[in-house]
Amino acid sequence: MRYVRHIFICTNRRRDDDPKGSCAQKGSESIRELFKKELKARGLKAKVRANASGCLDACSHGPNVVIYPEGVWYGSVKEEDVAEIIERHIIGGEVIERLLIKGPRYAPDRLKYPPLETGLEESV
Ligand code: FES
Fold first, then answer.
1. H-type helices in 1-72, by residue range?
2. For the chain, which has fewer Cβ within 10 Å, the N-terminal or C-terminal residue?
3. 86: CA distance to ligand 1 center in Å?
4. What's the pLDDT tens digit per position in 104-121?
């Protein structure tokens, strides 16, 4: 398997006068850089990818981060949340409740995906 997890960070930027706002206006570009840095520092760069994404259509909740394959949506993510997401969610397999975007459209499937170390086992 090429990557065990993809972390998509919305880095869409709208004009400053656009009433919808955008994740980049709220600091998502530096959040993405921090994800990359923190993954590299933990030796996870080859298994977990921090991708910049376009608008995830959840603009009012931004900065938004969605993690696949589990489809967990985190909103209002701040730089200080990045290490915690990697440690608790990516490595530990735990959903961080306080960061979840609320609402049925964003409900994660908590049971399906194991902690990272299990997912890192190579298939033969
Ligand atoms: S601008 Fe980030 S979800 Fe729309």
1. 28-41
2. C
3. 21
4. 888 877 656 667 765 544
